[in-house]
C-alpha cells in the first residue's frame, strides 16, 4: 500500500457512486478520487464537473489498465457485475470495497473472500446502514439493556415507487442479484444479525407486484436468532404509507421509531460530513422508549457514514480491522439465497 492518499477508482456513478461513495471519499483527506468509471455520457459529464481531478473512463477495462497507479477499487455498479468487477480488481492487486449486495450469489461472495485472502488484500462491503443515526441509537439501547430481554425486533424499509424507473431493475431476477430482497435485504438482515446474533430464516413472503413475473418488490422475512429474538423484516416498494422504521419489544420496555436516516438526502443535496447539521435528525422523529403511555423521546444519534471510510483507511494504512467483515455480508447472502430457494 502506498503512502496517503489512498488512490481510488470508483466503478459506477449512479445513485450509489454519486451520492454515497464519491462525496465520502473526496471528503476524507486520506483518499484521492483518481478514476471514475461510467459509460453514461451525462453521468460522465456530471462526474467530471464535480471531481475535476479525477479521470473519467467508460469501461472497467480502461480503469484497470491504470491499476499500477491505484490502491483501492470501489464497486457501485448493478448487482450482477459486483462479483466480476471486484474479482478483476483484486486480481489487479487492488484492495476492494463492494456495495451491497456483496455479490449476486453466496458462492460468488465466497470466491471474492478467498481471492482477497490469497493475495493478502483488504476486502470490505459497504454496509453503510450500520452508521444510520437510528441504528446507532438502537444499538446503544440494546447494549445498555434498556429493553430487558428482547423478544421481537421489527424493521422496515418501505417506499412508494409504483413505476420501476431503471430498465435493468425491471429485468434483473434473483439469479442476477435483482429484486428488493437483494437490494434492501442486505441492510435489514445485516442490522438484525449485528444486534441479535446468528439467525435462521423461518418464514418469508416474496412477491412481485409492480411488474408481473418481474423482480420481487414486496417482501416479508422472519428470522429466528440463536439468542431467542425473533426478527420481522419488511421491504416494500409499493407502500403508500410506510410503517415504523423500527419497533423493539422487550420484557421491560419497547422502542418505536419512525422516519428515515437523513444522510442520503443530505449528501444528495451537497451537505457533507463535518458541515453543520450533517447527520442530525429532526427531533420530531426521535423514537419513544417506555411502556404504555409512559414513554420518553430518545434523541437520535447523528448518523456517521464517514466512519466507514475512516475505518477503511485504518485497515489500509495501519492494518486495523476492516469496518465491515465480508464474512458478515456473506452470511446475509446465504440467508437471502435460502429464502429465494424456499427456505
Can you tag this structure with a few keywords?
single chain, 343 residues, alpha/beta, eight-stranded mixed sheet, six-stranded parallel sheet, 14 strands, 35% helix, globular
Q: Please state roughly what percent of the residues sit in beta strands, choosing from under 5%, 5-15%, 15-25%, 25-35%, 35-45% or over 45%.
A: 15-25%
Q: Give the class from helix and strand content and strand pairing.
A: alpha/beta
Query: How many individual β-strands?
Result: 14
The main sheet orders its strands as 8-9-10-7-11-12-13-14
**Residues in helices, as a percent range:** 25-40%
Q: Treating each run of at least 4 consecutive H or I residues as one helix, how many helices?
A: 12
- Principal-axes geometry comes out as globular
Head-to-tail CA distance between termini: 42 Å
Low-confidence stretches: none
**If you compute it from the alpha carbons, what radius of gyration comes out, rounded to the nearest whole angstrom?**
20 Å
Rounded average pLDDT: 96
* Largest β sheet strand count, sense and barrel closure: 8 strands, mixed
Compact summary:
With 343 residues, this protein is α/β, with parallel strands linked by helices.
3D architecture notes:
- The chain has 343 residues and is an alpha/beta fold.
- The chain has helices at residues 15-27, 41-50, 60-64, 79-91, 106-119, 133-143, 167-171, 180-183, 185-196, 263-268, 306-318, 326-340, and strands spanning 6-11, 31-37, 55-57, 72-75, 95-99, 123-126, 150-158, 199-207, 218-225, 230-236, 246-250, 254-257, 287-291, 294-298.
- The chain contains twelve helices and 14 strands.
- The strands form two sheets. An eight-stranded mixed β-sheet has the order 8-9-10-7-11-12-13-14, covered by helices on one side. A six-stranded parallel β-sheet has the order 3-2-1-4-5-6, with helices on both faces.
- α4 (79-91) runs parallel beside α5 (106-119) and α9 packs across α12 (326-340).
Amino acid at each position: 500500500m502506498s503512502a496517503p492518499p489512498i488512490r481510488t477508482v470508483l466503478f459506477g456513478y449512479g445513485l450509489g457512486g454519486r451520492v454515497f461513495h464519491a462525496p465520502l471519499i473526496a471528503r476524507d483527506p486520506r483518499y484521492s478520487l483518481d478514476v471514475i468509471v461510467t459509460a453514461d455520457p451525462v453521468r460522465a459529464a456530471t462526474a467530471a464537473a464535480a471531481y475535476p481531478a479525477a479521470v473519467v473512463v467508460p469501461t472497467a477495462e480502461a480503469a484497470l489498465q491504470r491499476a499500477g497507479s491505484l490502491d483501492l477499487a470501489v464497486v457501485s455498479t448493478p448487482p450482477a457485475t459486483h462479483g466480476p468487477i471486484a474479482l478483476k480488481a483484486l486480481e489487479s492487486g487492488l484492495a476492494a470495497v463492494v456495495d451491497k449486495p456483496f455479490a449476486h450469489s453466496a458462492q460468488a461472495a465466497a470466491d471474492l473472500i478467498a481471492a482477497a485472502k490469497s493475495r493478502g488484500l483488504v476486502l470490505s462491503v459497504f454496509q453503510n446502514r450500520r452508521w444510520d443515526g437510528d441504528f446507532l441509537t438502537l444499538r446503544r439501547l440494546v447494549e445498555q439493556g434498556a429493553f430487558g430481554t428482547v423478544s421481537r425486533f421489527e424493521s422496515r424499509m418501505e417506499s412508494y415507487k409504483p413505476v420501476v424507473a431503471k430498465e435493468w431493475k425491471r429485468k434483473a431476477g434473483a439469479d442476477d442479484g435483482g429484486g428488493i430482497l437483494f437490494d434492501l435485504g442486505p441492510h435489514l438482515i445485516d442490522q438484525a444479525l449485528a444486534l441479535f446474533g446468528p439467525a435462521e430464516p423461518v418464514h418469508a413472503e416474496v412477491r412481485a407486484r409492480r411488474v408481473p413475473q418481474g423482480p420481487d418488490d414486496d417482501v416479508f422475512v422472519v428470522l429466528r436468532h440463536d439468542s431467542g429474538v425473533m426478527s420481522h423484516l419488511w421491504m416494500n416498494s409499493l407502500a403508500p404509507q410506510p410503517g415504523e422504521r423500527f419497533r423493539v419489544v422487550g420484557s421491560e420496555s419497547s422502542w418505536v421509531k419512525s422516519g428515515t436516516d437523513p444522510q442520503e438526502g443530505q449528501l444528495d443535496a451537497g451537505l457533507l460530513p463535518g458541515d453543520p447539521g450533517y447527520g442530525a435528525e429532526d427531533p420530531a422523529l426521535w423514537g419513544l422508549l417506555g411502556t404504555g403511555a409512559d414513554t420518553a423521546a430518545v434523541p437520535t444519534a447523528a448518523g456517521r457514514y464517514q466512519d466507514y471510510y475512516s475505518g477503511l483507511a485504518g485497515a489500509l494504512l495501519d492494518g486495523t480491522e476492516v469496518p465491515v467483515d465480508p464474512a458478515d455480508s456473506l452470511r446475509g447472502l446465504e440467508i437471502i439465497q435460502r429464502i429465494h430457494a424456499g427456505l
